[in-house]
Amino acid sequence: MALDPETLQQLLDTVRRFVRERLVPLEAEVSENDAVPAEIVDEMRELGLFGLSIPEEYGGLGLSMSEEVLTVQELGWTSPAFRSVFGTNVGIGSQGIIIDGTDEQKAQWLPKLASGEVIASFALTEPEAGSDAGSLRTSARRDGENYILNGTKRYITNAPHAGIFALMARTNPEEPGARGVSAFIVERDSEGLSVSPHDQKMGQQGAHTADVILEDCVVPAENIIGGIEGQGFKTAMKVLDRGRLHMGALSVGIAERLIDECVRYASERQQFGKPIGEFQLVQAMLADCRTEAYAGRTMVADAARRFDDGENIATEAACCKYYCTEMVGRVADRAVQIFGGAGYMREYPIERFYRDVRLFRIYEGTSQIQQIVIARNMLREAANA
Question: What residues are labeled active site?
């Protein structure tokens, strides 16, 4: 563990107060304006939220996985747009540099990412490559001391605000699938790089995604992560376990917020002369929500502990991402049902959360990809037994 129990509890208490006193009251405004206020982003920097997972030597908090998931569960009590502001710095935007970057790359970028001075995005998905990441077409051709990149990245979280992109491109067109892919640190002001206007999404207003277009984009050869060609896909895969646990924890946090809203509403809303919470079928929905959220919290805690102990948790991480993101979708659906007509109205937060959580089952690996990962790992282990 990076923090002693008292310090960890102080961090969790601080994040809880920040979420409930500062962020929850702004949820409707952020959704309406499709933007997180600049002063809130500044407060996130001051709290150290951009550097939760970045090592202390580079200015971050250096949280263990077990500590990170507890913190993320607190952040899940509010709209996911807020977490998205710094989420890529904590996860997929920085972890490739932390795990496989050169000493020079770490020294140059990690302090800026930890402080929130620079926002990092992870650029893997393309118009024709998402779940099938090995089919990506963005090319990187060596030209002296540089690479020339051409291609388009799609649905890139925080692209409109990013200072750097951890970007995957094919350096060896002769190598099929993932083996010819390399990871680059591409700076926002690189010649030949542009970002489209941000996407208009079903939910998660305030969390911005956009296309990243590379047209003869010039990137110094020294910006290959780790300094080695052909390792990009391996770097991306190493990042995923931590990211999947992070998403599982966020889903648990949001489920618990929804449960709190449902319990309060069921205690107050009257039908047939008594609170609807006294009707057994409503109680059944509440009980199902609590049971599933508890199962998700326990799964994430166990997998995080195993991760911190150095175990290979590829299967467990996929289980967490799969179960928890599906679980919060079921909780959100029950929440709409418990609220009835009110759950369909923008007056209450349930409608917004219902739309927001739908994305969790798609990004950072769809539920179907998680199923494939889990099953293939099971079969591989059986074959090697």
Answer: 364
Return the bridge partners of 263, or none.
none
Q: Is 27:73 a contact under the CB 8 Å cutoff? A: no
User: Could you tell me whether strands 120-123 and 164-170 are parallel, antiparallel, or unpaired per DSSP bridges?
Assistant: parallel
**Contact partners, residue 21, CB within 8 Å, separation at least 6:** none
The three-state secondary structure class of 177 is helix
Contacts 24+ apart (CB under 8 A), 36-44: 36/81, 36/82, 36/85, 36/206, 40/82, 40/85, 41/85, 41/116, 43/18, 44/82, 44/85, 44/86, 44/116
Structural domains of the chain sorted by starting position, each given as residue range(s) with its CATH number in brackets: 5-115 (1.10.540.10), 120-230 (2.40.110.10), 234-384 (1.20.140.10)
Token pair for 7: 């310090």
Please name the amino acid found at residue 304: A
Determine the residue type at 320. C
**What's the distance, CA 124 to chain centroid?**
14
In the chain, alpha helices (H):
5-17, 27-33, 38-47, 65-75, 80-90, 95-100, 103-115, 232-268, 280-308, 314-339, 350-356, 367-384
Length of the chain: 385
Whether the Cβ atoms of residue 131 and residue 366 lie closer than 8 Å to each other: yes
Cα 9 to Cα 13, 301, 306, distances in angstroms? 6, 16, 21
Say if pTM beats, i.e. exceeds, 0.85: yes
Nearest to 320 by CA among 356, 359, 370: 370
**pLDDT of the chain along its 385 residues, tens only?**
778 899 999 999 999 999 999 999 999 999 999 999 999 999 999 999 999 999 999 999 999 999 999 999 999 999 999 999 999 899 888 999 999 999 999 999 999 999 999 999 999 999 988 788 778 899 999 999 999 999 999 999 999 999 999 999 999 988 877 889 999 999 999 999 999 999 999 999 999 999 999 999 999 999 999 999 998 888 888 888 899 999 999 999 999 999 999 999 999 999 999 999 999 999 999 999 999 999 999 999 999 999 999 999 999 999 999 999 999 999 999 999 999 999 999 999 999 999 999 999 998 899 999 999 999 999 999 999 8
